[in-house]
Specification:
The complex is a heterodimer of chains A (276) and B (249).
Chain A (H helix, E strand, L loop, with lengths): L15 H16 L2 H26 L3 H5 L2 H29 L3 H4 L6 H31 L8 H28 L6 H4 L19 H7 L3 H15 L4 H32 L1 H4 L3
Helix pairs in contact in A: 1-6, 2-4, 2-6, 4-6, 4-7, 4-10, 7-10, 7-11, 10-11
Chain B lengths: L5 E10 L2 E11 L3 E7 L5 H9 L6 E6 L2 E2 L4 H4 L3 E4 L11 H11 L5 H11 L15 H13 L5 E5 L7 H18 L2 E6 L2 H7 L2 E6 L2 E6 L1 H8 L4 H9 L3 H6 L1
Classes of the chains: A mainly alpha (276), B alpha/beta (249).
């Protein structure tokens, strides 16, 4: 007989099938919506084109940029990666809220941890879809490829994705706690990190007290590491380890906030009420 | 003695100073349809939300199929399902896509066959490739019911399953629910303020008012006890606090 559930016995651990079900749900959403796909790729592409021309201009006027041609474009591409990672994570959750679907999801056997892993996966996919056109354009028009700097740069990429997930969990925790009124945080939260992430300038440029704050962000390690690769041709393992270490703290804080806000939502009945 | 399908003991839920429900206790035996009847604000949705584990009680205990819904809800959830007009399926997904996603979440075997079966029985086969947001209220209700039955739940919780439906569609849904409970031996708990629906479908009725259960019994028992000819009059007696008057007459 069809339709019998396979896991009549108790689902104790994390289920890849349920994770993939959620990934599938968001794939269906993207697959049926060209505007959503365009939105993901639009801003990174525009940013890259602008900064590509800025780089070309500076190359004739600045010996520093001339010596490290990719540093500005690389910074733009990596910053967008961080932004896309966080927004990709948060948007998956907001889509569930907008469609008033949280009640259905959380009376199914889907566990919050599976939901979070699915959102991480979708954030990765959305990031790749959104950034791919800008990477291709950077290569075609400005002969710049981040991948030409070796696998080390991919390790730094990964750190930015993980930081985006940590921040994404914190953002959706706030949305779960305060409702859709807090959804604009999904769009702006990351920009609080821009000045202290040392995206376009070294951490040493910041005032001393702010440098301490900057070293509390994984992104500062990543952008310093990126400059070490692009300018000095050196892969700084210490910076990668720093980024990983601080990321673990971000993930722990993000997961803790999400768990707390989920429990609070169950306490106050918000899982059933939330939506437009 | 068999384990009750649903067991609530001394359930209380407070939102700040406001008590949504207090000291709600009941037990629903395996199989059959039980109605949770009450007016707006009586505590039906709060009770159902607690049974589902979506809302944590301030006090008391819930067991579904023997599982404590605070500590062991993931043991019970694969065997349950739920439908409510207060929750939607994603509008931009087609009906088939929504059923696939939920079928996967419930780990349903031979999912495509199950979807086709449900589509035929619930008369949504022609809607499978349409976006859920484009459906009429009646069609959406049938699709929500298909989602709620995708895993052949042993316990089905329905919050106002025929709210805002025309009489024909509502009657059709009721007939289907009767058939499902009988054929599958499932337990259905149905929250409603539609008296005719409860009178027709339910073997047992829990009457709620002001966050508590004020009476219970089979529809026939309740009619006899209140000396009324239909449940709507019983409901009004309870809602308007005419119980003592009725009892006296």
């Amino acid at each position: 007989m069809s339709g019998r559930i396979r896991e009549q016995a108790l689902p104790s651990g994390v289920s890849s099938r349920r994770i993939m079900a959620m990934v599938r749900r968001h794939y269906y959403l993207l697959h049926g919506s060209i505007p959503r796909i365009l939105e993901m790729a639009y801003w990174p592409t525009v940013q890259m084109v602008i900064w590509g021309f800025v780089t070309q201009f500076f190359m004739g006027h600045s010996s520093w940029v001339a010596n490290a041609a990719g540093v500005l474009i690389g910074a733009v591409l990596l910053w967008d990666l961080l932004f896309r990672s966080q927004i990709g994570f948060s948007m998956c959750f907001l889509e569930e809220m907008w469609s008033r679907n949280l009640g259905h999801l959380f009376v199914s056997p889907l566990k919050p941890s599976e939901f979070v892993i699915a959102m991480m996966t979708m954030s990765l996919l959305r990031g790749i879809i959104g950034l791919m056109p800008s990477w291709i354009l950077a290569y075609v028009f400005f002969e710049f490829s981040v991948f030409s700097y070796g696998p080390g740069i991919v390790a730094f990429f990964s750190c930015l994705f993980v930081m985006g997930w940590g921040l994404g969990m914190a953002v959706i925790a706030l949305v779960l706690r305060f409702g859709l009124g807090a959804e604009s945080l999904a769009w702006v939260a990351i920009f609080a990190f821009a000045p202290i992430s040392a995206v376009y300038y070294p951490v040493a440029t910041l005032p001393e007290w702010l440098q301490v704050v900057a070293w509390c962000t994984p992104s500062a390690y990543v952008f310093e590491g990126m400059r070490a690769v692009f300018i000095d041709g050196v892969f700084r393992t210490d910076l990668l380890m720093g980024a990983i270490g601080v990321n673990l703290v971000y993930l722990a804080i993000g997961a803790g906030l999400f768990a707390w806000s989920f429990a609070s939502a169950r306490e106050h009945g918000r899982l059933l009420q939330m939506g437009e | 003695m068999s384990t009750p399908a649903i067991e609530a003991r001394n359930l209380t839920k407070k939102f700040g100073e406001i008590s949504a429900i207090q000291d709600v206790s009941f037990s629903v035996e395996d199989g059959g349809i039980t109605g949770l009847l009450g007016g707006n604000g009586a505590g039906k949705t709060t009770t159902i939300s607690i049974l589902l584990g979506l809302l944590l009680p301030s006090g008391g205990e819930v067991r579904i199929l023997g599982c404590d819904m605070v500590r062991e809800r993931y043991r019970a959830l694969p065997l349950m399902n739920f439908s409510s007009p207060y929750v939607d399926l994603p509008h931009r997904l087609t009906v088939r896509e929504n059923l696939r996603v939920y079928g996967e979440l419930y780990s349903v075997e031979r999912l495509e066959t199950r979807i086709d079966e449900l589509a035929e029985r619930l008369d949504v086969a022609t809607l499978l490739d349409r976006r859920t947001g484009q459906l009429s209220a009646g069609q959406k209700t049938r699709v929500a019911l298909a989602k709620a039955l995708i895993n052949r739940p042993r316990v089905l919780l329905l919050d106002e399953p025929t709210a805002s439906l025309d009489p024909d569609t509502a009657d059709w849904i009721r007939t289907y629910l009767e058939d499902y409970a009988r054929e599958e031996g499932a337990t259905i708990l149905l929250a409603s303020h539609h008296m005719g629906e409860v009178e027709r479908l339910c073997d047992h009725v829990l009457m709620m008012r002001g966050g508590g259960i004020v009476d219970r019994g089979s529809p026939a028992d309740l009619l006899a006890r209140y000396g009324r000819s239909d449940l709507e009059e019983v409901f009004l007696d309870i809602a308007r606090d005419r119980v003592s008057t009725v009892a006296a007459t």
